[in-house]
Amino acid sequence: MNNMPTMTKNLLVVNFLAYMATWVFELRGIDLTSLFGLHFFLASDFHFYQFFTYMFLHGSFMHIFFNMFALWMFGSVIERVWGPNKFLVYYICCGLGAGLTQELVQYADYSIQGLAAYEYVNAGGVQYTTDSYINLWTTIGASGAVYGILLAFGMIFPNERLFIIPIPFPIKAKWLIVGYIAIELFSALQSSGDGVAHMAHLGGMLFGFLLIRYWQKHPGSSQSFGRSKGMEFFENMKRRFDERQQKSNMHAEPTGRRETDAEYNARKRQNQEEIDAILDKIRRSGYDSLTKEEKQKLFDQSRNT
Predict the structure, then answer these.
(1) How far apart, in Å, are the Cα atoms of 65 and each of 16, 59, 143, 158, 202?
(2) How far does Cα 291 stand from its chain's mean position?
(3) Cis peptide before 170 (omega within 30 of 0)
(4) C-beta of residue 95 within 8 angstroms of C-beta of residue 142
(5) Can you tell me the distance from the alpha carbon of 218 to that of 230, in angstroms, rounded to the nearest whole number?
């Protein structure tokens, strides 16, 4: 736990505390799932805050175990790449996207069944009022946010090989994600009534994909909350480099000839562009993506600043 990134650790703790609270309050006759689970938006028990609270509730130990195991395994990696604030924004957005997707799916089901025209509904041999029936449509779990994290891992490390039980050979992350999408889509279309919100899982992945693509096209939009300590170091190093370059007006070339202002400015501009390119590469793909030459140049520059 001490080596786990801060936000991943906090999310694990909050989810497990919420799970234990669910059972403690149930012994006192209070149903937290009914209060904080995400109800269908046309149901009387629906509240807007449920879009946020539903993703911290789970229905069984295996439900929370597998979600939190995936959060620990993949979330720790993604948080180290993005930093805690950007990681949390992504996690919450994927959870919200999953909830919105589930609401749309339920509305489609509500419309197809024509429930608005009925006062009572028979389900499983029991007669419900229509409002009571749609109040049963409650979604809980962090799966939508976790599936978004799986997608992020596949996009950031597409060729990373993973061993997934029961597959007897390593599989690249990008193909694993494609497989998950296919399985969830197939399960959703089967309409098996297994109690799993398959479309919510896909919704979490879709919103995660759209957010990552937005950040890729607008890198400055996530810098205010996505800068990790490692990135702050490189940004500070870049600033010191700029300040040092501004203090010098003339430098001698290796041949001993004094370079002109135009030559000096051109060389300074080229060095700056090279450093900027390296820092941008770190921001996009992490420090380990640098070549040996790029790491050496960055090291030499940091030593001279």
Answers:
(1) 9, 11, 11, 25, 20
(2) 27
(3) no
(4) yes
(5) 21
b/e per residue, 221-257, with b = 16+ CB within 10 A? Answer: ebeeebbbeebeebeebbeebeeebeeeeeeeeeeee
**Lookup: tokens for 265:** 């400015």
pLDDT of residue 265: 72
SS3 198: helix
Distance, CA of 25 to chain centre: 30
93 contacts 151 by C-beta, under 8 angstroms: no
This prediction has a pTM of 0.72
Q: Which residues pair with 161 in a beta bridge?
A: 172
Q: What's the CA gap between 297 and 224, in Å, rounded?
A: 27
Most confident of 89-98, 118-127, 253-262: 89-98
> Per-residue pLDDT for 132 more than 70?
yes
Most confident of 129-143, 210-224, 260-274: 129-143
**Contact 96/175 with Cβ under 8 angstroms?**
no
How many other C-beta atoms lie within 10 A of the C-beta of residue 88? 18
**What would the two tokens of residue 143 be?**
């799966």
| Torsion angles phi and psi, residue 226, rounded to 5 | -105, 5
Cα separation, 71 vs 89, whole angstroms: 15
